[in-house]
Design goal:
about 300 residues, alpha/beta, D-Maltodextrin-Binding Protein, domain 2, five-stranded mixed β-sheet, three-stranded antiparallel β-sheet, about 15% strand, ABC transporter substrate-binding protein, ABC_Gly_betaine_transp_sub-bd
């Protein structure tokens, strides 16, 4: 492994807990804050939770309680349903398959509209317009393996996976749009059952050759820096995963100024910009709030 890669991974591993720990306080009671924002437990989600919080604070007079790094999809969704949380950013494909238990489909607008309607009807939750980027599951291998075996598509990898080990997150192993459907679509088998791994450790395990294939995020900031290759989903298995703010309709009715504030974020973030923000946190070890503040300021300057 290149020395630069080794150092980056070593520092990233040490700092992963430090950064999530020092910027979150999930045991803190709601107190008197007007709005409670949560996020799932990985870098991009913490950035997006902070983005919502700063946008609300800058565009309204409301106070925000940040419950960042809260947990997985179902914990955040349950917080919304029960009123413990007011808003968080979800991905349309995740909502469609994991929460609504629908089979994956590929059309982004159809998925978005179905999620929007079902969330309002079933949960009294309002799905806001997409933020502008799609963060799909990314099936990755080491760059050296991709070059040596001429791997470009997931179909190419199927020939070699019987000799490989895979590492996946818990949700990917259990979701409708996860491992079982992917394996059936591409006829993937492995040398042993896939190992369930913490999302923050999968990249390290792949580079250190503890596993040979992982399911990460397409907007992860470390993909290029670690020399990893994302295999193309050539059979279009994965649904679209547009990032969308979801807020309790009851909260919007109580604070109608929220709708205009959050709508201003529509289409604001490209995939490249999201990947860059992720890298600023994971690769440069900067604070979420600093990265978000700079991003929002740069967007405001362009509009002026």
């Amino acid at each position: 492994m290149k020395a630069k890669q080794f150092l980056l991974l070593a520092v990233f591993t040490v700092n992963l807990g430090l950064f999530t720990g020092c910027q979150t306080d999930n045991s803190r009671p709601r107190g008197r804050a007007d709005i409670v924002i949560c996020s799932k437990n990985f870098t991009e989600q913490n950035i997006l939770g902070e983005l919502l919080a700063q946008q609300i604070e800058s565009q309204t007079n409301l106070t925000v309680d940040r419950q960042l790094n809260l947990g997985g999809t179902f914990l955040c969704h349950d917080g919304l349903r029960t009123g413990k949380i007011d808003a968080y950013v979800e991905y349309t494909g995740t909502a469609f398959t994991a929460i609504l238990n629908q089979s994956p489909i590929s059309d982004p607008e159809t998925v978005y509209q179905n999620v929007k309607t079902a969330y309002q009807d079933q949960f009294n939750l309002t799905v806001m317009p997409p933020l502008g980027f799609n963060n799909t599951f990314a099936i990755m291998v080491r760059g050296e393996d991709a070059r040596n075996l001429n791997l470009k598509n997931l179909s190419d990898a199927a020939e070699y996976t019987p000799q490989w080990r895979a590492g996946f997150g818990y949700e990917f192993m259990s979701r409708e749009d996860g491992f079982s459907g992917l394996a059936a679509t591409y006829q993937l088998t492995f040398a042993r059952p896939p190992e369930v791994m913490d999302l923050g450790l999968m990249y390290r395990a792949l580079v250190y050759k503890k596993v040979d294939l992982i399911a990460g995020d397409s907007t992860n900031g470390l993909i290029d820096k670690l020399g990893l290759v994302v295999l193309k989903d050539d059979k279009n298995y994965f649904p679209p995963y547009q990032a969308v703010p979801i807020i309790r309709t009851e909260t919007l009715e109580k604070h109608p100024e929220l709708e205009a504030a959050i709508t201003q974020l529509s289409g604001l973030i490209s995939e490249a910009e999201m990947q860059q923000m992720n890298y600023q946190v994971d690769g440069e070890f900067r604070r979420y709030d600093e990265v978000v503040r700079e991003f929002l300021a740069s967007k405001q300057q362009r509009q002026e």
